[in-house]
Each structure stands twice: as C-alpha cells, then as structure tokens.
C-alpha cells in the first residue's frame, strides 16, 4: 500500500501543479482516501528488478519511501531477517535502475533507527536524548562498528552508505525521519506506530462506555521517550530537502520528546474519553524498543531553515478526528451489536506481527497407498515425481521477496495396515521422501478406513489442516504431477474476494466467491480412468447436500448483510458429434451478467473426431469450460445425461452443437428464470433461416418443425420443447434423465423428458415449462439443406413410443393415417382376393390393386394437403419465413410436404411394428398434451376421415 508519508508527499506534489507524479505500489488502493495522488500508477513489487526499471523509465526524480516497516509490533527480532532482505533488495534494484535510466535526483527515506543502540539504552528513565546526525558513528571503532537498532536500522544505515557510494552517479538526498504520524496511516494492523495505537485504544474505550472495566494497554513501563512529527511538517521538510543541494543525511523530526505514558493520556484527552476512570496496564513482555530518543534539529534548521510548526496536541487531535471516522466506518459494517463490541475489544490491544505467520499457507492433502501399483516401491517413485513437481512449481512463491508470502504444509494420510510405508522406525517412508525434497512442514496421519474411501482420508487431512489455520486446501493424489509454475499465487490472486477458510468451489460459486485457475496436472494413474483402488463414489451430493450447504451459507451471510444474495447458476450442456469449432466458439463466446454463473459442459460423442485435440487446445484450459469425450458413440440422449451428471448448477441449459445463439441469449435466459423461479424449465425459441429451396419450404409446410418455435405460440405451461434450446431445473433429485430406449439420433426423448419433469414440478407445488420466446437460437437446415427424409422418419420411429409411455395423452383415431392406409393397400388384396385357378391372373390383379391402392393413398394425401393449405387454413402459412410463397415452386413444396409427413407416419408405424406394440396402431399422441383442449384431436381425426373419403373416391372413380 502507498505509505502515510508517500501518499501525503505525492498529494502535495500533485497539488503544486509542477510535477507529473508516478506511484509504484503493490496495491491499486492507497490508504490515503482523499484527492488525486498521481498521474500514473504502476502495480508491482520493487524487489523485482523489472518493476524498478518500469518505475524509473523517463523520470528525473525518484523519491523512495517504500519499505517493509512499522512500529515495534513489526520491526522486532523475529522479523528482522525478512525485513532486512526485502528492504535491501528493494533499494538496491531501484537505485541500479535509477542510475541506468539517468535519473538526476534520488530522495531516500531513512530512519532514526540508524542511531547506535547503546546511546539510546544507557540513559536514565524518562530522560530525553537528543541525537544529531554525527551520533551515528559516536564511539565507533574498527573493533566496535556502529550498532543501529536492529537489522531494520542496520539496513537503513547500509543504504545510506550505498547512496554515498553512488553519489557520483546520481544526486542523493537522505532524510532520517523520526516517528512520522498523521491522518491516513495504518492504525489497526500491527504495523501502526505509537500515536495511532494510543488513539485507537482511547477511541475504543470511549465507545465501550465510561463504566467499562477494560484498561488502557501500554507496552513496557510507559517511561520510554519518543519524539513524534506530524505528517504536514514532514512533507514540508522533504520538499525543502529535495529542492536543496544538501546530500548528507539530515534529521527530520521533532526535538521535543514525550513519554509513552504521557502520549497515552494525551490520546485519551483528544478522544474526549473519561481519562479519570481509565486504568493503565503495562505489558513488559512486548517489544518496546529503545529507552529514549528525539531529533536534534540544529543542522536541519541551519541547512533548510525549518522547524516543526505543528504541536503534538494539535497533530494528535487532527489524527484523532480522522481515525474516529475510520472506526465509525468499520463499525457500520458490523450488523449486530455483538460484532461491533468485538471489534472495539480488539482495538484495545496492539498486535505483534509475525511475518512468518502472515504467510498464506497452502495445505497439500495427500492420501497415499503402496497397494495397487506394479510394486510397493512404485508409490514412492510416483510420490517423488509429485514432490519434485511441487518443488518446481512453488519455488518462486516460497522464496520471493517483497510481495505476499506463501508456505506449504503437507498432510499425509496413510492406511494403518500399510506395512511397506510404515515399516521403518521414525518417519514413515513417504514423509522421509518429502522431507528429502526440502519440505519441512509434513504431518502424517495414520487412518483406519475401508479401502477406496479416499474422501474419508482427505476429510481427516482437511480437518487437521483447518485446525492448523491453513488458508487453502489442495486435494492431490500421490501419482499427480503439477505442470504449471506459480499456481499458488494464481489461486490466491483469483480468490481475493473468496473466503480464506475452507472453500468449496461449487458452494461459493453461488456468490461469485470461488474461482478456477489455469493450472494443469498430469495423472499417471486414475483420474477420470480406473484407479489403483475401487472408487467409492459419493452419489447425489449435488442435490440435497449442496442445496443445504448453500442454504446454510446464505442464512449466515444474510444475518450480516441482508442485501447479499447468491447468484443464479446455469450449466450449458452441449452434446457434440460434429465438433464444429466455429459453432462451438460462438456458443462459448456468449456473455452473461455478473449475477449469473455459467459453466459450459461439452460432451463429445465422436471419440474419433480429428477436431478434439484442437478443441482441447483452444478451450481445455478455460475454467468455465469442461470437455468430456465419450469412449464410444452413445447418442445425444446419453450425452445429455452425462452432461447433467457433470453439472452442479440449479439449472441446466441444453443446446445443440449446430445452433447459432442470439448474442443476448444468456441474459434473456437469466431473466426468464428469475421471473419464474418455480418452473420445471423453459422452452426457448428455435428458428430456422429463411427457406430458399422447395425442400426447405416443404419441411415447414409438413408441420415437423411446428414445435421448434412453440414458445411464440403458447405463453405458459408449454407441453414440451425441443432439446436444441431447452432449460430444465437440475437441483431437484427426481431421477429423471433422457430415456435411452429412444433412438440415438433422437425422436420422442425430449417430450418424454419434459413431461416427466413437469409432473415432478407440479407435485412439489411448482409450475410446468414456461415459454421463453426471447431466448432464441437459429438452427440450420440439416445436411446443409439437402433433401433427405430419413431424419423425419427416425424421429417418428422414436416418438411412436410415446403412445405406450403416456396412455393418458393418447386417443383412438376415427380413420387410419397415410402409413396405415399404405399398409392396408398392400395387405388387403392378399386377404380379400381368392387365389383362383389362374395364378398369373390372380397375381396380376393383386399387383394392380396394390398399385392402385398405394397411388390412391398418396394422391389423396397430396390433394388433401393442398386443399388444407390453400383453401381450408391459408392463414396458417402467412408467417412462413420463405422466399417461396406462391407460384409453381410453392405448389411443388406443398406436394413434397405431403411426402415428408407420410415418411414420418411410416416411421411411426414401423416403430410400433418393430416393438410389437400392435395395440398402438390407430392410436395418436396428443402433441399438445391437452393444453389446447380437444381441438387438435378433432382436427387430426377429421383430416384422416377426409383423406379416407378422398382415397375411396380416387380409387373408385379416378384410377
């Protein structure tokens, strides 16, 4: 974060209008909230030389305020080496980059901690000690070199010497700052200095009330002496120093010291707390620093003509006013009185920062077994590969300076009866191997579970890691190799808004609080294939288990902030045989709102497709895309079922792999789901391009695509929808899948699925399938629009099963349909004609009658369809999206539509015969499922009666 000093200094430069200011920081959110701080912001780590080179490119002045620092809660002995290393490399790289870039002036913020420790510890209690610039080397000899306050002070002194050495290459300015404080600084993190800490405690005591029994905490005995400089005075002096030609170190601080006890009482006074009723508690176990120190300002007064102008009382009052607003802001974010009181109680105590403990800890949960491999030793070979991959891919995160710190903790789960791994005394073989790869934090858990219960082993590891306060939990197998470097920081960066405790991806997905990272693994054994053990699968966990967990988290979050609600989750399932990358890319490019969480699940049903590799290459690493390849061609229904089993969303959206979606498809889908949350699902609007050929127009005139855009014709409780564009509720454990008894190529399975889903929804108090006319896709004509009746024949072959499956939605027709007439035309001559003495004559007559009957049936159906379209119901074709609406080509399309309809009826009859469902012949399925009353039934019956009359008349009088 931009420091207190850096933010105020930058703001002053900006307001002067004389400088163009560039800030380099690790965070885009500075602590100083008011006004502009810079013209340009670079996010980066100054311990990285490349960041330093970017920082100084094209600049003439560098003001170096960056440091790993804080009060005595931070710069104590336990953190010294880390602080020294980060501050040293930060300055070293920045100075080198500045010299190489030709920077003219380099201002460095040093510290009063450079002064010798023995001078500041040898004074009597409560005795001021004024330190001048030359005191750094007082009493120093070759045998007793300068000894600053800790490694923090030593690094600052070393940098002063480094800058002196470089002063021939860049003009340097060195400011030895003494305890700068003021509005905008850290005050509640453990890195705050004494003024902020005392004000925080005073404000907290004030809010807890005069009758509070809590004491005012002071580290040490309170007699240690310090001087404190208000931020505005510090900035004034730095600007003067920057403009001067003075290159030696210069004190910038107050020459008036005060005891920490007196500072505490001043904090109580400016906070308007009842100091008369406050007791002080002195904690001598905490770091306290030196006994006494204040700035000798003789040289800065002489060189710059400067003296501090803000008294401690005034500066503390200004800082208190700012901090009170900050505390109020934090308290307002707590919903309950208990939460606010807890925060205030925390403010009463200062923290000791342990930089090692501040590291983000990744728990590696690792069940291991020596069974099932080629030999017991093979498990150690696999584990060695894993350990090496873990070391290779985490080295930078574990050893880098200046940024976030990471640590790895490994939790091994070993079966209690694994004699190979547990054979030796001391650490088991697996633990010993991991330690040999440099991992020191390894915990072994000896577990007693039935073989194959890997989740139980993982659960024990996770519980132990949770007790150890780990931040992230990685579930691995001992035969996995991690391929991508930097996965820890990528995961941490991608989950900055996620809970820092145990995160379940699918659970917190509902609040957009879980992320997937670009991380590749290789699995030598197991994975999606067979493992070394019999997998014990946790079935159906994506239903009640996940739903109940979401409900619990939702209740908990709403207790703190009722305005926060989970996102809608929708998984798009695409059964894919063609693997048309252009079409798939178009679907995967769909945008959606931030309140909708999407996962695209592609089920490739053609394992020999040459496009699979390219599909994996293009999209296999996208976290919102899951690609699965069937081992054999299973068909669309089985692929959709696999897609559903892969899903964990509330809703699943079925799209065909040949559709072109509207750009706002997912926005409209979310809208209709939110408007009707109790629906069984939604039927989208599937349209076709404008028909340009006779065959394409005939397809529509035949009625086989009538239900594709049914969402524009029925407003609610749509009887069914085609799976090219269908949304269904998934988070109800109803056991409903696409029935695999229907043909692999499709036909009837969509109706079956929708009717069963609707039934379950109605029983549980919901509604049926809603119409979603704005959820629109465009479906191309099959086979590039080339003529083929086979698809319609096979659809009908399958949907004929619906008569037996849903007898309540069927009815007996008054007359046969075209297929049944054709069957009768072939069969009746053999039945009614006697064989006779003249066999040749009998066969001729039979053939004649069959030909005449078939011709009569076909001609009657064609003429009747022409009559229906041109005279009986011409209005039904008014909206036909076709360039063929009249003339000879339209008449030809009408004729061909009859053949398409008859091929469908033939397929339906053939299916009934093959299934030996003789009782289904003559029965019809109500495609509207009663939604339109008896109208469709009456029309179908009347049409077939009319065709019967036509057939008889043609047979008798025409042919």
TrEMBL record:
One protein family per Pfam: Glycos_transf_2
Show where the Glycosyltransferase 2-like domain sits: 572-687
- Keywords for the protein's UniProt record, in alphabetical order: Glycosyltransferase, Transferase
Has keyword Iron?
no
Which terms in the Gene Ontology molecular function aspect does this entry carry? Answer: glycosyltransferase activity
**NAD-dependent epimerase/dehydratase domain location, by residue?**
4-253
Question: InterPro entries per the record?
Answer: Epimerase_deHydtase, Glyco_trans_2-like, NAD(P)-bd_dom_sf, Nucleotide-diphossugar_trans
Q: Which domain of life is it from?
A: Eukaryota
The family assignment reads: Belongs to the glycosyltransferase 2 family.
The protein in question is named NAD-dependent epimerase/dehydratase
Q: Which organism is it from?
A: Coprinopsis cinerea (strain Okayama-7 / 130 / ATCC MYA-4618 / FGSC 9003)
């Amino acid at each position: 974060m931009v420091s207190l000093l850096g933010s105020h200094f930058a703001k002053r430069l900006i307001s002067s209008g004389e400088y163009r200011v560039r800030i380099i920081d690790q965070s885009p959110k500075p602590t100083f909230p008011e006004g502009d701080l810079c013209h340009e912001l670079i996010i980066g780590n100054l311990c990285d030389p490349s960041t330093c080179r970017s920082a100084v490119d094209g600049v003439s002045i560098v003001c170096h305020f960056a440091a790993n620092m804080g009060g005595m809660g931070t710069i104590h002995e336990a953190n010294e080496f880390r602080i020294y290393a980060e501050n040293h490399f930060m300055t070293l790289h920045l100075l080198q980059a500045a010299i190489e870039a030709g920077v003219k002036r380099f201002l460095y913020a040093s510290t009063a901690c450079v002064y010798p420790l023995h001078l500041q510890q040898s004074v009597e209690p409560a005795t001021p000690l004024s330190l001048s610039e030359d005191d750094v080397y007082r009493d120093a000899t070759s045998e007793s070199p300068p000894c600053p306050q800790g490694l923090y002070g030593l690094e600052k002194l070393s940098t002063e010497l480094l800058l002196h050495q470089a002063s021939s290459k860049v003009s340097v300015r060195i400011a030895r700052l003494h305890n700068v404080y003021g509005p905008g600084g850290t005050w509640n993190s453990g890195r705050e200095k004494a003024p902020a800490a005392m004000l925080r405690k005073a404000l907290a005591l004030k809010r807890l009330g005069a009758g509070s029994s809590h004491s005012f905490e002071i580290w040490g005995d309170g007699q240690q002496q310090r001087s404190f400089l208000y931020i505005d005075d510090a900035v004034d002096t730095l600007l003067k120093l920057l403009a001067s030609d003075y290159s030696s170190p210069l004190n910038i601080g107050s020459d008036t010291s005060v005891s920490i006890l007196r500072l505490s009482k001043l904090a109580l006074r400016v906070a308007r707390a009842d100091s008369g009723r406050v007791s002080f508690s002195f904690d001598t176990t905490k770091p306290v620093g030196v006994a006494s120190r204040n700035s000798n300002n003789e040289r800065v007064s002489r060189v710059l003509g400067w003296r501090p102008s803000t008294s401690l009382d005034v500066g503390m009052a200004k800082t208190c006013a700012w901090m009170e607003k900050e505390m109020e802001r934090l308290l307002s974010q707590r919903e309950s009185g208990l939460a606010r009181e807890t925060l205030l109680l925390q403010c009463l105590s200062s923290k000791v920062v342990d930089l090692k403990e501040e590291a983000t800890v990744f728990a590696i949960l690792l069940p291991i077994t020596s069974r099932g491999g080629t030999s017991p030793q093979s498990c150690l070979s696999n584990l060695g590969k894993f350990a090496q991959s873990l070391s290779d891919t985490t080295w930078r995160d574990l050893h880098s300076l200046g940024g976030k710190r990471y640590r790895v903790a490994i939790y091994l789960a070993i079966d209690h009866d694994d004699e190979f791994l547990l054979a030796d005394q001391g650490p088991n073989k697996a633990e010993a191997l991991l330690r040999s790869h440099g991992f020191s934090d390894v915990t072994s858990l000896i577990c007693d579970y039935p073989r194959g219960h890997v989740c139980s082993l993982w659960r024990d590891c996770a519980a132990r890691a949770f007790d150890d306060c780990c931040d992230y939990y990685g579930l691995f197998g001992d035969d996995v190799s991690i391929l991508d470097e930097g996965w820890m920081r990528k995961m941490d960066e991608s989950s900055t808004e996620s809970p820092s405790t145990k995160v379940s991806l699918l659970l917190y997905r509902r609040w957009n609080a879980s992320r997937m990272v670009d991380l590749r693994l290789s699995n030598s054994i197991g994975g999606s294939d067979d493992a070394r053990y019999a997998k014990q699968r946790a079935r159906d966990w994506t239903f009640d288990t996940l739903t109940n967990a979401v409900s619990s988290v939702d209740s908990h979050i709403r207790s703190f902030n009722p305005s926060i609600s989970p996102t809608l989750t929708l998984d798009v399932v695409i059964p894919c045989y063609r693997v048309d990358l252009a079409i798939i890319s178009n679907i995967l490019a769909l945008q959606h709102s931030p309140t909708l969480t999407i996962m695209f699940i592609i089920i490739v049903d053609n394992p020999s497709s040459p496009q699979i590799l390219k599909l994996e290459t293009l999209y296999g690493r996208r976290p919102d895309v899951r690609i699965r390849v069937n081992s054999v061609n299973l068909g669309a229904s089985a692929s959709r079922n696999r897609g559903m089993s892969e899903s964990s969303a509330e809703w699943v959206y079925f799209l065909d792999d040949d559709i072109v979606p509207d750009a706002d498809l997912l926005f409209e889908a979310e809208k209709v789901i939110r408007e009707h949350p109790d629906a069984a699902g939604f039927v989208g609007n599937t349209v076709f391009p404008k028909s340009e050929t006779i065959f394409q127009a005939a397809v529509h005139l035949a009625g086989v695509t009538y239900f594709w855009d049914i969402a524009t014709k029925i407003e609610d409780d749509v009887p069914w929808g085609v799976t090219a564009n269908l949304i269904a509720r998934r988070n109800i454990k109803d056991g409903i899948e696409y029935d695999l008894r229907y043909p692999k190529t499709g036909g009837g399975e969509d109706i079956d699925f929708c009717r069963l889903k609707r039934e379950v929804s109605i029983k549980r108090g919901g509604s049926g399938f809603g119409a979603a006319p704005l959820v629109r896709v465009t479906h191309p004509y099959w086979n590039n629009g080339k003529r083929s009746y086979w698809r319609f024949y096979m659809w009908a072959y399958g949907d004929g099963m619906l008569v037996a499956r849903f007898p309540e939605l069927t009815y007996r027709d008054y007359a046969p349909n075209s297929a049944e007439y054709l069957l009768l035309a072939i069969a009746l001559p053999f039945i009614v004609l006697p064989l006779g003495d003249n066999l040749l004559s009998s066969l001729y007559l039979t053939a004649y009658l069959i030909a005449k009957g078939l011709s009569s049936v076909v001609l009657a159906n064609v003429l009747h369809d022409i009559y229906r379209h041109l005279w009986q119901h011409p209005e039904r074709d008014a909206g036909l999206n076709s360039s063929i609406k009249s003339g000879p080509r339209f008449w030809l399309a009408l004729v061909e539509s009859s053949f398409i309809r008859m091929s469908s009826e033939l397929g339906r009859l053939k299916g009934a015969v093959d299934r030996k469902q003789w009782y289904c012949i003559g029965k019809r399925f109500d495609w509207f499922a009663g939604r339109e009353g008896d109208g469709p039934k009456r029309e179908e019956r009347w049409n077939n009666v009319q065709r019967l009359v036509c057939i008889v008349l043609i047979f008798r009088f025409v042919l």
